[in-house]
Specification:
Largest sheet: 3 strands, mixed
Strand order of the largest sheet: 1-2-3
Distance between the termini: 27 Å
Helix content: 25-40%
Oligomer: single chain
Order of helices and strands: HHEEE
Number of helices: 2
Length: 79
């Protein structure tokens, strides 16, 4: 993964991931159903293949989604 060097690059990168995720949900509605089971206000955190698993924010509602060539919801016990 290329690490974005500027804030603008990071924003473009995150927007690109978001649109990729939306396209994946359109192709595979079951993926979206997995995400919808979480409460409103849950933050989706995309983890790309070369990134280490981030430390969850304490007290935050987060759902981690592994990104490789496809999107995969990661089940967690802390949320």
């Amino acid at each position: 993964m290329n690490t974005p060097n500027t804030n603008a690059e990071a924003v473009r990168h995150d927007i690109g991931l978001t649109f990729d995720f939306i396209r994946a949900c359109i192709k595979n509605p079951a993926l979206l159903e997995q995400v919808e089971q979480f409460a409103d206000g849950t933050e989706l955190v995309f983890i790309e293949k070369d990134q280490p698993f981030p430390t969850p924010k304490e007290g935050a509602k987060q759902q981690f989604i592994k990104v490789s060539h496809s999107f995969e919801v990661i089940e967690t016990e802390f949320a």
